[in-house]
Amino acid sequence: MVINFAAGPAKLPEEVLKEVQQELTDYNNTGMSIMEMSHRGSVYLKINEDAMKSCRELLKVPENYKILLMQGGGSGQFAAVCMNLMGKTGSADYAVTGTWSWKAYKEAQKYGNANLVFPKPENFTTIPPQNEWKLNPNASYLYYCDNETVDGVEFNFVPETNGIPLVCDMSSNFMSRSIDVSKFGLIFAGAQKNVGPAGVTVIIVREDMIGNAMKITPSVFDYMDVAKNNSVSNTPPTFIIYIMSRVFEWLKRNDGVEGMSKLAQKKSQLIYGTINKSNGFYTCPVDEQYRSRMNLPFRISGGDEALEKEFLQKAEKAGMVQLKGHRSVGGIRASLYNAISFENTETLNKFMNEFYEGKK
Ligand code: PMP
């Protein structure tokens, strides 16, 4: 086995993979695989319901919020959010703090007036203080990305909006800490980082946000339609949802999101500590207070590509894979999602220290 530090699709708990393997050809004595079952049959519908129930329980989602399971990934939601929510006033605010919120903002321009609440910086390394944000009181919502997967910028606060609904992309830090769902109009997250394989997106939306979809909204992207049909209006990715629901069970066995939060803190502090102690050998460009607990980007020796290549090759030889930074920023990126254990992180940390010592 290798240690997979990928940014997503990413490592899944081994325990879950083993369970899935066990049940692959015969689910619960039905004599067939989950993959082969009707999405309208009672066996699958129970899985669907359990997945939503567990999500509600893990994040303490209030009763007046719907949980939807949709396809189209995070990128699908960049558009779905606009088609469902932007029509109310025709405009929406975007706080762009990295690559993914920038993409969401670009997509939003197709559907109405999308406004940046602060100018796009050249490099995404910090979050401007809230008193510099220019909010439009007529916006249908304020959009932001809680954790920028590529840039390693994570919010440590929930923005204040004076009553404007908050829409948040939590794809890459979903279920890694507790959140007060009641502060949000809508939260979405692709499963493929912290809670499952690629193929399903979880949407948590306050009921009163639903019902103003633009006429052009495809039915499969219409929150009202999906909510009314319990997320089985068309064929859902049944196998993926089943695996996600197993990850939710695993989370419950491991102290839920509070357990993950403590672990994420401990893991990320270990690696950032090593970066900080390396006398500039390892550098992370992100403002310390907004450094991501999930995706840790760093450069070696001021961005020495030959040295970074050597680091990656040696890491791979030592069984640590997918540590290459996103092609747009280069360098190294260690993603420490929920399924990465503290021991896994210690292995990486030891390797980083040894690599540094060898180059001193
Ligand atoms: N938002 C964030 C924060 C992401 O990390 C990603 C994908 N890495 C996306 C959105 C886009 O998701 P998808 O590839 O599922 O469309």
From TrEMBL:
GO terms for cellular component: cytoplasm. InterPro entries: Aminotrans_V_dom (IPR000192), Aminotrans_V_PyrdxlP_BS (IPR020578), Pser_aminoTfrase (IPR022278), PyrdxlP-dep_Trfase (IPR015424), PyrdxlP-dep_Trfase_major (IPR015421), PyrdxlP-dep_Trfase_small (IPR015422). GO terms for biological process: L-serine biosynthetic process. GO terms for molecular function: O-phospho-L-serine:2-oxoglutarate aminotransferase activity; pyridoxal phosphate binding. Pathway: Amino-acid biosynthesis; L-serine biosynthesis; L-serine from 3-phospho-D-glycerate: step 2/3. Residues 3-347 form the Aminotransferase class V domain. It catalyses: O-phospho-L-serine + 2-oxoglutarate = 3-phosphooxypyruvate + L-glutamate; 4-(phosphooxy)-L-threonine + 2-oxoglutarate = (R)-3-hydroxy-2-oxo-4-phosphooxybutanoate + L-glutamate. Its EC number is 2.6.1.52. Keywords: Amino-acid biosynthesis, Aminotransferase, Pyridoxal phosphate, Serine biosynthesis, Transferase. PROSITE patterns: AA_TRANSFER_CLASS_5. Its cofactor is pyridoxal 5'-phosphate. PANTHER family: PHOSPHOSERINE AMINOTRANSFERASE. Belongs to the class-V pyridoxal-phosphate-dependent aminotransferase family. SerC subfamily. This is Phosphoserine aminotransferase. The lineage of its organism: Eukaryota, Metazoa, Ecdysozoa, Arthropoda, Hexapoda.
